[in-house]
């Protein structure tokens, strides 16, 4: 089984976290933390900064490491490293179909991807 290693941005402000809805691929319509694949030669911070700039057209400050999740989808094994991040400006969706700011009370109101659920649990303790 192919392994894909990615980074995810847990973007928080005012006791809320940003969730984005996939606008493409097999998992289209599900909700996730924005981010993406680590390219050859990139460290996690560089990859996450690049991915957020591509997906949300905004700069971020990558902060504290939160957790690493491993999950087996049908066609690949995912390794996802999540970091708490801060936006530097307003975001504009480039690849996602929607975005929502979620409070602790409505954190599970969206259909999260299975691999993102352990990160959601971590976020619930932070907000």
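Sequence proposed for the structure above (127 residues):
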């Amino acid at each position: 089984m192919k392994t894909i290693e990615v980074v995810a941005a847990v973007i928080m402000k005012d006791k809320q976290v940003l969730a984005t809805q996939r606008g493409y691929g097999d998992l289209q319509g599900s909700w996730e933390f924005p981010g993406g694949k680590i390219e050859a030669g990139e460290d996690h911070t560089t990859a996450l900064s690049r991915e957020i700039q591509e997906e949300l057209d905004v700069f971020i400050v990558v902060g504290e490491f939160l957790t690493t999740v491993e999950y087996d989808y049908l066609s690949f094994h995912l390794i996802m490293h999540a970091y708490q991040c801060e936006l530097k400006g307003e975001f504009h969706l480039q690849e996602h179909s929607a975005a929502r700011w979620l409070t602790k009370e409505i954190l599970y109101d969206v259909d999260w991807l299975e691999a993102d659920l352990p990160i959601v649990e971590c976020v619930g303790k932070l907000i």
